[in-house]
Amino acid sequence: GDSVTQMEGPVTLSEEAFLTINCTYTATGYPSLFWYVQYPGEGLQLLLKATKADDKGSNKGFEATYRKETTSFHLEKGSVQVSDSAVYFCALAAGSNYKLTFGKGTLLTVNP
Amino acid sequence: DVKVTQSSRYLVKRTGEKVFLECVQDMDHENMFWYRQDPGLGLRLIYFSYDVKMKEKGDIPEGYSVSREKKERFSLILESASTNQTSMYLCASSAPGTSGVETQYFGPGTRLLVL
After folding, report:
1. Tell me: the pLDDT tens digits for B12-23?
2. With an 8 Å Cβ cutoff, is A44 touching chain B?
3. Chain A with chain B: Cβ pairs closer than 8 A
4. Does the pLDDT of residue A21 top 60, yes or no?
5. pLDDT digits (tens, 9 = 90+) for B70-107
6. First to last CA, chain A
7. A36 to chain B: which residues are within 8 Å by CB?
8. Which of B88, B89, B74 is nearest to B25 (CA)?
9. Please, is A112 exposed, middle or buried when counting C-beta atoms within 10 Å of its C-beta (0-12, 13-18, 19+)?
10. Is the peptide bond between A10 and the residue preceding it cis, with omega within 30 degrees of 0?
11. Is A59 exposed, middle or buried (0-12, 13-18, 19+ CB in 10 A)?
12. Of the N and C termini of chain B, which has fewer Cβ atoms inside 10 Å?
């Protein structure tokens, strides 16, 4: 079945550091890929998405590129802020697109 | 803005009680979902509904049921709560996007403790 594997956390960085959170997937067909973010005490929010190979999703300084050859969708940001501290979830939608399959989440803490 | 609201942020119930978790969305979305979120396990889909009175089992439906009598409301029911149902419950809704890809919009979650 479909699955998403993302790097284990927690990840702790200093402000202005470079961020990479790895995400790889297994799916039948051509899935759409998502990154969701969960700030403390809140539900999940869509951060960015990509619907086909080589697409780049971007939002709030975060980027991720859909790499079909490596089945990856790594999240990057050039300079993190304290306000980026949150849990980040990689997810895919395949087939019917009704359902999302999530990774286990990566907790990011950014220190001033 | 899309708004998904959940009836409670925190609930404490006793083993064996019947528990109702309510979710309401205000964007006329066709699809609604219930997930549970547990540390180290991420989000797991319990049930979803793609139309009024329609429902489908997700990955972990055991011990749960759902009701969707109106398009905007999707209820999760724990028929007889057990301690292993202590968790964070997240509701989401979606509608087909212009590219055929649906974005799911999440509520703030209900943290349920079963004693």
Report:
1. 999 999 999 999
2. yes
3. 55
4. yes
5. 999 999 999 999 999 999 999 999 876 555 567 889 99
6. 41
7. 106
8. B74
9. exposed
10. yes
11. middle
12. N
- In the numeric block, the tokens 């549970």 are attached to B36
- In B, which residues are within 8 Å of A46 by CB distance? 103-105
Paired tokens of A79: 């300079």
Considering only CA atoms, which of B11, B36, B56 is closest in space to residue B106?
Answer: B36
To the nearest whole angstrom, how far is the Cα of B85 from the nearest Cα of chain A? 18
What is the 3-state composition of chain A as percent helix, strand, coil, each rounded to the nearest 5?
5, 50, 45
- Provide, as residue numbers in chain B, all residues whose Cβ is less than 8 Å from the Cβ of A43: 4, 90, 92, 106-109
SS (H, E, C) B77-110: EECCCCHHHCEEEEEEEECCCCCCCCCCEECCCE
**What is the distance between the alpha carbons of residues A57 and A34, in angstroms, rounded to a whole number?**
9
Q: What is the three-class DSSP state of B16?
A: coil
Beta bridge mates, B57: B47
Closest CA to B79 of B96, B62, B103, B97: B62
- Contact of B85 with B38, CB cutoff 8 Å: no
